[in-house]
């Protein structure tokens, strides 16, 4: 087994036993990136010099007997995370050459532990997309089939795990952007409860929905990485001040007697037969492990996608106003006057998906339409939240598919944005409700493409979905399969 | 036709917090451009606002002092528009749930009291400023974001004012209150207290308001009055000619005393307000409001009433003394040491104010004659150690040197002479040297008496106790 194949906890043991150094692990990872990223395009920026300096520092720390779970581990960050001194593009031309002057909180926490940042990962522009085709830096290819998309918007973060070009990565999830690509790339992706992880230093797409989370090779790593970045942050008013449990310690709780809910609105006609089969197998496995299955209802599910596209685009239209060419990022040349400078800068800097969503959001907030669209969407959002809370009065966890289909071909849905928007139909409600969800590898289609399984937990129920996921992982081999690269 | 003017005012007060409303940067005025900035107030990607608690507290203070009800669940909204000095592309403000609502202030104009409604007070951040610099080789405009994200309260009145004088009375009152509360430095020139005026005309007797013009960002009481007066004339002319006033935003030009159009309604912004998802609602429990209420200072109106009722001061004195919190404090500290309210008032309104005025309008807080010194001097006067006349000399000396009055009296030998023997000798001398005047007096010309007093005082170099002098002179002349 190569160093780049290892999980965080496996590499941690080797670093601790001094069987391998962080510099060796980092070199191996950088070599691997060099060897295969040309095919995958998961990285926008690779930072070899800086990574090796950090690796050396980690080795010194380890030699001094000071080793945290992430010390010396090569990680990649979605390019939405603000990194001091490292170019941060958010997948957009408008930030093509933007080098931030500060680190965000999640990044600072990783650095405190001594993690080694090997680079910044490709993503849909400003996290807007379900296929990673909207990046200014070109589409990411799915390591399981280079003709397919890896999903989005954290497509680079998921593909890097599958391509084994990062031991672990951080992504963000606004409507499924961690879970859906994790599913498409056969890795573990966790979207924590809104407020669990600080958003300070994460470029905002839709502030009330965005949440930071880990993408990893297995459930233990997800627990480790979440534990490292979770917690209250005085720099983020929306981060919640509740204690962070030891997620790893709680993994082996088992599922005996656990009540798992199956929302009937998620098991509908038209679900891809391969996905349906994987779900049936998972349900059977959980039953055999002693979990109790119950059908539950989330009656407002059908409104989730529409609600999401009103709230997310409304917030995005405002969040993206700061990209005006005045203080940083791209500025159009030869513009005459201020208004023209704003307009040209944004026309040149943003791609078509971003423009589409800014226009949608601007419309939804404009006077005369605000009540009909934005206010109504907020009301529906409350109903969707209530659906989940009602369901959690009956069950501990919900089990659902992640995506209606296995990964699709690059370009397949580009001409039909509405069809593309529907690919997040099973993940979006979790963001609207603000609760947590995890995607774990649950099988492969007849064509050999990954299929993920979603477990949804109560607000701040990360420990429960992690232990539920862990029980499944222990009994299956899906997470051990390697993409053919 | 005769018109009635209708005026409503929006006042922006910059709060005197040490740090900005959503980040920890300093709010000090006049620093090197962009030296007081951070990712948050620069609107950098990924940065998030965190509310400064002091701002909420100051807003509650303002609300309580203007008889408002305090909103207990507060929401911040985004006001979206593009401008180069607005870093995020939106201003964080309050929209449908402002922190204070439904208040009022009572003003007095020409002896009549009138109640002006306060619609709302809300918290918001300021924008930066554009510097159209006169720098050789630089054609571009520069942006200074030191002011971006400094805390403001916007205080919006009802359109209750019916004359420029009422508008100014309201503004001065509001200015006085925020200064008393210590939440704003009140500096109009630096823009800490600035005003937009909505002005419209309607025929006298009508109850339907005319179309209004909004006059933007005027930074002195004088200019506000001029701007409103000009608007009244301008709009009256339009209406007299059968025209229609258009709703627009106008700028006042202090050089010409006129207003000119800045933007019309057709360019009006759609600000697309919505609740800021980066800030959680601010909940204000009853206890917080009561805690703030307990720390409110006595406000000018209450102070004035108390001066009249408890200290027996005339209305006029009370009004002058409460005009600023610092002056009132100086007065009260002096009275605490020398409880003759009217005497102290005379000195504070007289000598103290005169000396400060002559000294480049020096602030009362810098007055070299502290309340303690002034009280000590008044005590010397009361004991008869010095006369009222000498007191003025002593005061001037204290103002110059800051020395204690006893010391000045001692050093300069200013002690009043009340010793009957010494004064009697001087009286005798004066009478002996001026026999002609003595004749006149005894012949019935009593006005000569003042001449004798003057001579004795001169002989004593002003130190003789005038009462004793009077008494002895009368005795000798009549006897």
TrEMBL record, chain A:
InterPro entries per the UniProt record, alphabetical: Amidase, Amidase_CS, Amidase_dom, GatA
One Pfam family cited in the UniProt record for this chain: Amidase
Keyword Iron-sulfur: no
EC main group: ligase
UniProt keyword annotations, A-Z: ATP-binding, Ligase, Nucleotide-binding, Protein biosynthesis
Entry annotated with the keyword Nucleotide-binding: yes
List of catalytic residues: 78, 153, 177
Enzyme Commission no: 6.3.5.7
Reaction(s) catalysed (UniProt annotation): L-glutamyl-tRNA(Gln) + L-glutamine + ATP + H2O = L-glutaminyl-tRNA(Gln) + L-glutamate + ADP + phosphate + H(+)
All residue ranges annotated as the Amidase domain in the record: 24-466
PANTHER family: GLUTAMYL-TRNA(GLN) AMIDOTRANSFERASE SUBUNIT A, TRANSAMIDASE
Role played: Allows the formation of correctly charged Gln-tRNA(Gln) through the transamidation of misacylated Glu-tRNA(Gln) in organisms which lack glutaminyl-tRNA synthetase. The reaction takes place in the presence of glutamine and ATP through an activated gamma-phospho-Glu-tRNA(Gln).
Family: Belongs to the amidase family. GatA subfamily.
HAMAP family in alphabetical order: GatA (MF_00120)
Subunit-level organization: Heterotrimer of A, B and C subunits.
Name under which the protein is recorded: Glutamyl-tRNA(Gln) amidotransferase subunit A
Species name: Geomonas oryzisoli
TrEMBL record, chain B:
Keyword ATP-binding tagged: yes
Alphabetically ordered keywords of this record: ATP-binding, Ligase, Nucleotide-binding, Protein biosynthesis
PROSITE patterns given in the database record: GATB
EC annotation from Swiss-Prot or TrEMBL: 6.3.5.-
Keyword Nucleotide-binding (UniProt): yes
Domain Asn/Gln amidotransferase, residue spans: 329-477
Enzyme class: ligase
Pfam families registered for this protein in UniProt: GatB_N (PF02934), GatB_Yqey (PF02637)
Catalysed reactions, as listed in the record: L-aspartyl-tRNA(Asn) + L-glutamine + ATP + H2O = L-asparaginyl-tRNA(Asn) + L-glutamate + ADP + phosphate + 2 H(+); L-glutamyl-tRNA(Gln) + L-glutamine + ATP + H2O = L-glutaminyl-tRNA(Gln) + L-glutamate + ADP + phosphate + H(+)
Family matches, as SMART domains: GatB_Yqey
Family assignment from sequence similarity: Belongs to the GatB/GatE family. GatB subfamily.
Subunit structure: Heterotrimer of A, B and C subunits.
Protein role: Allows the formation of correctly charged Asn-tRNA(Asn) or Gln-tRNA(Gln) through the transamidation of misacylated Asp-tRNA(Asn) or Glu-tRNA(Gln) in organisms which lack either or both of asparaginyl-tRNA or glutaminyl-tRNA synthetases. The reaction takes place in the presence of glutamine and ATP through an activated phospho-Asp-tRNA(Asn) or phospho-Glu-tRNA(Gln).
Descriptive protein name: Aspartyl/glutamyl-tRNA(Asn/Gln) amidotransferase subunit B
Gene: gatB
